[in-house]
Amino acid sequence: MITSLFSAVANIFGRQCFAQSEWTILAAITPFSVMLFALSYIGFTRDFSFDQFAEDSSDSSELLPEDAVAMEENDIERNINACIIMRKLYLTPNLKIGDVAKATGICRTYISKHINRTKGVSFSDYINSLRVEHAKVLLAQKAGNTKIVTIATLSGFSSEQSFYRNFHKFTGMKPIEWTKQHLACNADTMRS
């Protein structure tokens, strides 16, 4: 929108306005270059690509949304849980909804809507909440002996920053704070 608006304004002023000196040409070209770079960068960092869309569209095992609606809710829940939880697919770094769609044979749109409706969160938040629960188990088992970056990796997070952000989002604490609280609770339980 900004690029289009800027183009319209530049077009109204006309070529003569910008052709007066080298500085006016540079002043006109620089914002366009920055905006085109920003558009390209945003497009480059998107998770979804045309190749991925074509691959998903050509996969005959994937159900259409109408077919998925016809399946019973329990079957869909069972398939999604079997794929994500039982097979621990959530531990896969950079897991995409398309990966789950291929593994379950259910359309990615229907998986997304189902998780939004039944869990009340987005697909990525659901996966990250499972990863945080896994990290809590690892923290409890290896309290203080394992580095946080190792626990983050073993829990499926692609970076330590992502791990810290999501851990705090779902627990309200930093991993170290949670571990200290967990150890204190266990010590109180053992004394009782």
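[next item in queue]
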Amino acid sequence: MTNRIENDASSRAFIQCSKLTKAYHKGDQVITPLRDLDLEIAKGSFVSLMGPSGSGKTTLLNLLAGIDSATSGSLRIGTNDLASMSRNQLAAWRAREVGIIFQSYNLVPVLTAYENVELPLLLHALSRSERAARIEAALETVQLMDRAGHFPRQLSGGQEQRVAIARAIVADPPLLLADEPTGDLDRDSAAMILDLLGHLHRDRGCTIVMVTHDPSAAHRAQIELHLDKGQLNRTVEPSHASASGGAH
């Protein structure tokens, strides 16, 4: 039976996984982190993924990003069938449609915050003034315009992650994928990042899928999914979502 996750704002499935399976060889063993996963997520949902190590969380995130390909099954995001797309098509689609937030920030150390945020826009046909307007808007959203000229080494961990979020949203993608976005942060910085994700979900209508090991972070999402051995169970926590502004 398909796990259908709906948002009050829309019942149309934005992400559709059918019998999605990922397997790979490790020596003589076949490892299958995801097996026959059926899942539908409506546009505008904020979903958290939890589960033990090896449960398939990051594997699913990589498939959703088009970074990895499934062994079998189908995956559609919007009108795009990811399995039918070439590597170049996936790269172009990802540049338009997906923002990725990493646990380790993945900022380029020799570039300023402004230049790091600019990187995704270099793949788009924009004038310098158009790029500047988008970069400044993204940095204002994460409240770091005053750090635009700083290098990553001059920023705190929380500030680095906010720059990474600005980079993820600067092209205004409809889908944000976050892999342990608060994993390396102290409690106060983590709370700020989660507040920011809630704001992006509520005010921009982004569809967010967030991998986390932290139950308190998972509770900030509209919907909690629990993966175990590549299998999925759904938990909805409307009281937490409402408290964080995640539900509509």
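[queue empty]
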